[in-house]
Amino acid sequence: MMHEMADLWFNEHHVLNSVKFSLNVQEILHTEKTPFQKLEMYKNDTFGVFMTLDGFIQVTEKDEFVYHDMICHPALAVNPNIKKVLIIGGGDGGTAREVARYPHIESIDMVEIDGAVVEACKKYMPSTACVFSNEPRLNLIIGDGLKFVEESEDNLYDLILVDSTDPAGPGEGLFTVNFYENCYRALKEDGILINQHECAFHALDAEQMQKAHSKIKKVFPIAKVYGFNIPTYATGYWYFGFASKKYDPIEDLKGEQWEKFGLTTKYYNTDIHTGAFALPNYVKEVLAKA
To answer: Is 271 a catalytic residue?
Structure first.
């Protein structure tokens, strides 16, 4: 069986008919058409188990630490007193796993639209999904994150992490002014929002980055962008948005305080934190037009 599959490849198209990224498939673990998307789990010799949704890589065992470090730790290094966290999406569990490493955090609400993602990751990717069985502070809600934030109380959360797919399919509504306004309302007066910001290299991605940034800028007084290197995302360089009611991600960095948490991280450190907000000129140009 393994031998027969030796030349089976998963291809992700970054630019249609022009650029693709390929991983050899050692084993097909799971395929399913959920009510929301096509969910597939594969195994590759180098990257281990990886999950795709609608043909796009979401997470791999080998490099998930980069994404999950960078969606979570920068906000907690800016405000080390975060207590209530909301995660939108993140069905693989990696973001919740990183948040849960902070003992002082009181509650983690996580709203994932597709329960099938959670179940598949529990079975095939325990390195991220372990959090679902071992974290009493985690309140997992299978439902619509958009609706959840809309119905959320005012001034409830210290931090909202939008761990979504790209702005198409189930993730589309998480890139609207209305959604960001509801996030603003649900955040406390010093609240922070971290969101998916795509990449700036390919034309379509750059356009999506620009759109997301222009909408967030309308809602939050502080809206910055930071980048990180992740091998399996388009171009290997990806971005998050850091939006806040009060904190500047560089000026308000509490590096020494964060280091006292004593967390061992594989990607994030306080030097990386500062450097991540230093953007290449082509990215600055994309954002300047937002």
So the answer is: no
Q: Which residues pair with 228 in a beta bridge?
A: 238
Note whether 153 and 183 are within 8 A (CB). Answer: no
Report, as an integer, the average pLDDT of 57-78: 98
Q: Which of 63, 92, 158, 163 is catalytic?
A: 163
pLDDT value at position 172?
60
Q: What per-residue confidence (pLDDT) applies to 2?
A: 45
The two tokens of residue 283 are: 């990215």
